[in-house]
Design a protein that fits this description.
Length: 413
């Protein structure tokens, strides 16, 4: 498995200028490639090949006076920028044909020098290296200071230098993990868990553990509000506005970093302690269009679930995602009776069939574990709720798919 290890960079003023020059050259080459493709499409000509674009936009362009400054940066940076353009078009066409999973990919567009994120990539043939003193030596940039937070397990295959919206620099190394080392780090266990994600509690586990939601954005709202107000009062195009924009960006970056660190620590803990993990496939995009949008984005469920998924694959764990329309909050985890939808303010309820009293979130976590086939009886057989006769109000038509989704959205979470 390939993973990325990111470390903070602290370039000197001269190195910052060299990095800005490299960012600009990579952006120009990318835009030239997109322009060449668009021109060919408008004129009905075949799309230029990658080899032709490399020859015209890089090799020959360096010989022209208007593009001679391309020779001031590493040629690998320019070639990787062309590869990024090719990959963007491949994803776009694959999305049009329905061959690409996930959201539809839009056609590549021109990059701007005002983009909040700038990046360049160095592969192995770029002759970058890590010096004995622990600095990252980049061609035509020099040795850059790195804040090493951990050691690299293997030799990286490439490094990407990123400048984010807050003006911070990072080096992102691509690492091939060693399965034997990963197995030794995370020995097998006989435990399994179901996780119900929410807002009051970030996660409720099927064993009854409740993990409070840190609400990083809510806690930082006062500071963000002041920074945003100061930004709105600055004149557009002024240096003071640029400084105020960086203050806002740094405040948001601090919130995002704290949230990501929380997700990493919790996901690693759950992966270490459990051999199998089950979660519900939440409709985050739908929930983000409701009055709970800010809290949903603050929780960051999608990022957390993605971490669980790739860490489970890395350490040989079982990761199961059940359907979002599974009635986990309506079904009694004791007898399997479906008690119908309940308003969000109902946090505890009593089963009308067996009289068991349930905490809403804990009951949902148990049902998630059961629906994934992870719950077992004393004899080791999987436990699943049996068939339950439909209630009178549930028989017949259940309405349109849109109404069913709305009912699930407002009654089960």
């Amino acid at each position: 498995m390939q993973l990325r290890y990111a470390f903070r960079l602290y370039p000197e003023p001269g190195q910052e200028r060299a990095l800005a020059r490299a960012f600009g050259c990579a952006r120009v080459v990318f835009n030239d490639a997109v322009r060449a493709r668009r021109t060919a499409h408008e004129q009905g000509d075949p799309y230029p090949t990658a080899a032709l674009l490399s020859k015209v936009l890089v090799t020959e362009a360096k010989q022209r006076p208007e593009r001679s400054w391309l020779a001031e940066v590493s040629a690998v940076v320019l070639q990787q920028s062309l590869k990024d353009a090719e990959a963007a078009y491949r994803n776009f066409f694959a999305s049009l044909k329905g061959e690409r999973k996930g959201p539809k990919a839009a056609a590549p567009r021109f990059k701007s020098r005002k983009d909040t994120r700038q990046a360049i990539r160095f592969t192995a043939n770029a002759c970058w290296s890590i010096t004995p003193g622990g600095r990252l030596h980049l061609p035509k940039i020099g040795p850059v200071k790195v804040a090493w937070s951990r050691t690299l397990p293997t030799t990286p295959s490439s490094v990407t230098v990123v400048k984010d919206s807050a003006g911070r620099f990072f080096a992102s190394f691509v690492i091939d993990t060693d399965p034997d080392t990963d197995n030794a780090r995370m020995p097998d266990t006989d435990r399994s868990i179901g996780i119900d994600l929410g807002l009051t509690h970030f996660a409720v586990l099927s064993d009854g553990t409740k993990i409070n939601s840190p609400r990083f954005l809510r806690r930082a709202e006062k500071k963000l509000k002041k920074a945003q107000r100061d930004l709105s009062r600055k004149q557009k195009g002024s240096k003071n506005r640029a400084k105020a924009r960086r203050v806002v960006a740094r405040a948001h970056a601090k919130v995002a970093d704290a949230r990501k660190e929380f997700h990493h620590q919790l996901s690693t803990k759950l992966i270490r302690e459990n051999q199998a993990i089950a979660v519900e496939d939440l409709a985050v995009n739908g929930l983000a269009r409701t009055r709970l949008a800010k809290s949903v984005h603050d929780a960051g469920w999608s990022q957390f679930v993605n971490m669980l998924q790739y860490k489970a694959a890395r350490y040989g764990r079982t990761f199961i995602k059940i359907g979002r329309f599974e009635p986990t909050s309506q079904t009694c985890s004791t007898c399997g009776h479906r008690d119908g939808p309940k308003p969000l303010d109902v946090r505890e309820w009593t089963c009308s069939a067996c009289g068991a009293v349930h905490d809403r979130d804990h009951n949902a976590a148990i049902n998630i574990k059961t629906a994934a086939g992870l719950a077992v009886s004393a004899c080791g057989a999987p436990i699943r709720p049996g068939l339950v006769p439909a209630q009178r109000q549930e028989t017949g038509s259940h309405g349109t798919p849109t109404r069913r989704r709305a009912a699930k959205l407002h009654s089960t979470r």
